Backbone:
């Protein structure tokens, strides 16, 4: 079994009402994922509101999660930037002992060419011996890592082992599976289309909603990976409205409301993101009750 196969969860960063990191809530959240048998943890991704964290906070979060996890689950660390030299400097901030791979987002806002993207990730791959998972999320970055660029990167760097494909475009999943080597991991980054993506060859998901409904979503992911399409499709259909609600007011607004509903964390975010409206909180709560009954 490949290390990053199945249900990976992109952890949020819990805050208290004063905007400080809530370490006790973080402990509860990580322990819950371990108890629910998710397959791996993704730390300091977009869902963690990483753009609002200081370097010291990022380092402290990683160390706390490593301590609570105690090597029970693989850890993927998010390290990304639209400044290549800044990205390489970031690597020096962390003690990477206990980190199993790096997840690095396509450079955002600046819209580099495919050659720029290739050189950016090549610099990262040369800087670290850890496995690197590319992260394609054009809805946030403004540019997509094209399949040919992924092929070039894989051919040039053996430690570029996979891609989190979050475009939601199933034809891209198919193209990646057709054109990349068999051992290159294609991981869904879109909760809405994860089950169909697995049907096309994706090896699982790095999920937002999975951290609040790991039992339900994990069941669907495992069913899809084992070829049990009937059960997988039932889960796929059952979670669509929950997905819609969780992303209705942006991410991680919805998932923090879901986790707050479970008394794992408080629903606070750092500006410019804000907590869910009372209407959305009520809708999420009602939907979670419905899902629990399935």
Residues:
């Amino acid at each position: 079994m490949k290390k990053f196969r199945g249900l990976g969860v992109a952890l949020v960063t819990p805050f208290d009402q004063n905007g400080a990191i809530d370490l006790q809530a973080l402990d509860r959240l990580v322990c819950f994922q371990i108890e629910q048998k998710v397959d791996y943890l993704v730390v300091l991704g977009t869902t963690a509101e990483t753009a609002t964290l200081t370097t010291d906070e990022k380092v402290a979060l990683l160390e706390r999660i490593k301590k609570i996890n105690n090597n029970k689950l693989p850890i993927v660390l998010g390290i990304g930037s639209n400044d290549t030299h800044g990205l390489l400097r970031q690597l020096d901030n962390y003690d990477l002992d206990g980190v199993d791979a790096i997840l690095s987002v396509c450079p955002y806002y600046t819209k580099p060419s495919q050659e720029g993207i290739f050189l950016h990730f090549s610099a990262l791959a040369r800087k670290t011996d850890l496995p690197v998972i590319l992260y394609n999320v054009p809805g946030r970055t403004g540019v997509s890592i094209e399949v040919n660029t992924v092929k070039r990167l894989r051919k040039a760097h053996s430690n570029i082992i996979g891609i989190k494909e979050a475009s939601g475009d199933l034809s891209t999943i198919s193209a990646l599976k057709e054109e990349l080597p068999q051992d290159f991991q294609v991981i869904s980054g879109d909760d809405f289309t994860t089950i169909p993506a697995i049907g096309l060859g994706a090896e699982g998901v790095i999920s937002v909603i999975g951290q609040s409904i790991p039992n339900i979503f994990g069941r669907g992911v495992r069913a899809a990976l084992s070829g049990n399409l009937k059960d997988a499709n039932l889960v796929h259909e059952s979670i669509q409205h929950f997905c819609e609600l969780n992303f209705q007011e942006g991410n991680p607004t919805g998932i923090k409301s879901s986790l707050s509903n479970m008394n794992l964390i408080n629903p606070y975010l750092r500006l410019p993101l804000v907590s869910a409206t009372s209407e959305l909180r009520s809708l999420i709560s009602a939907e979670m009750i419905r899902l629990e009954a399935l």
